[in-house]
Amino acid sequence: QTAPEMERTLGIGASLLFTRLVSWLRLSHGTGANVSTQLRAIGLFVCAPGGERLRAEFVTVGGLQTVVDTVALSALVLPSSAKREALLLLTGIARTSREYKAAQCELRASAVVVAFMKGCADDDAALDAGRELLVALSEGNPQFALTIANDALELLTSRENARAQLFGAEAFREILAQLGSEQLYDEGLGERRTDAEEAVRVAEQAAGLAQGEDILEEADGEEAGAADPARPPASRRRS
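Given the sequence above, the corresponding C-alpha cells read:
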C-alpha cells in the first residue's frame, strides 16, 4: 500500500500508530526486545510510496539515529537477524532520495555498517544487507561517495573474517563502478589509491574462490550421490 492509502484505511489512527511505533523503538531498542517486529512495522510506513511526510517526521524525531544505533548494538544484545532488518530499513529510506542518503552519511552510517560486518562471520544475509546499504548510500551521492568507498576498504583488512572480506570487496567494486576515474584518483582517496587498486584484485580473487568452492561442493555432492543413490544432490540439500 502507498502511504496515502494506509492513512485512508487507518484514518487519524495512522499517524498515532506510526508515532507510537517510533517511540517504542526509541525506548526499547537497547534491550533487544521485539526490535525486528518494530523495524518491519516502521518500514511499512516510511518506505511506502508517497510517504515523504512520514519519512521527514521519522528523521526529525531521531528515528534515523535510533536505527543506526541499533546496528551498532552488541551481538549479545541484538542478534544479526534483527540488525539485518535495521539495514534493510536504512536501505529503503536511502533509496527514496539523496536527502536521506546524506542524512545517514552525516550520522556515519557507513562506518557503523562496516564495523558490524567485520564482526559478523556467520550470517550471509546480514552481510549482504550491509553490502546493499553501502552501495545504496553511494549511488547518486557524490558528496559522500569517496567516504563510503574508504569505509568499504576497511573490510578488506578483516583478515579473520573471510566472509566480510568477500562482501566488502563486492561492495567496493560496485561503488567503484559508480565513481569516475577522476574521482578515484583525486585527493579524496589520497595515498589509498593503491589500496583501491588492490581491492579490485582481491575482489576478483575472492569471487573466483567463492565460485570454486561452490563447484567443489557440488562435485562432492555428486560423488556422494553416485556412491549412495538415496543421498540427494548437494544443491537439493542446501535448498
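Residues 131 and 179 are 17 Å apart (CA to CA). Try to locate this feature in the C-alpha cell string yourself.
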